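Possible regression after last week's pipeline update?

I re-ran a chain I had predicted before the update to compare outputs. Posting the input and the new output here so someone can diff against the archived version. Not blocking, just want to make sure nothing changed silently.
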Amino acid sequence: MQEDLDFIIDDTEDSMKKAINHLESEIVKIRAGKVSPNMLDGITVDYYDAPTPIGQVANITVQDARTLTIQPWEKKMLAQIDRAIMGANIGVTPQNDGVQIRLFMPPLTEERRKELFKKASGEGEQAKVAIRNIRRDGIEQIKKLQKDGLSEDIAKGSEKTIQEITDKYIALVEKHLAAKEKEMMTI
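New output (post-update):
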């Protein structure tokens, strides 16, 4: 029984870590004041009939705080990368000079910063919901063990442990959102 309990608690914490990792990967894509190559994560181009991330067919560099340069390894990929960025609707028009593509990020207005923070907050809320669902599943598994003969005291203690883990990860979500808000609101 104790092995089952330990497995449930470890599995619950691992799932919560995955929810935090997903949150981190999503909010890094939301542009704050400066550009980042991560903004292009998730954008794929057709490379020899296979959808391939831009980072695997080109060199992406940050030229300055507002300029991203994309240098494809094969010149024929320029047009495809250009189309993929336009299709991704990241709010920037690519500038193709025949050798490389430049993305010039306009400065963010106060209104746009608030809009982007709402998006980040939405991602944070989704992470919290996921963490709470993971907690619920863990507690349900403990209750099943209790029906199979686990003592009530041990079950309650395990539920308390899962709640403490949940509180820790919810606080981590809040910490990530506060850091993102600070990053977005500083000009």
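Follow-up from reviewer: compared with the archived run. The chain is about 60% helix and 15% strand. Marking as no regression found.
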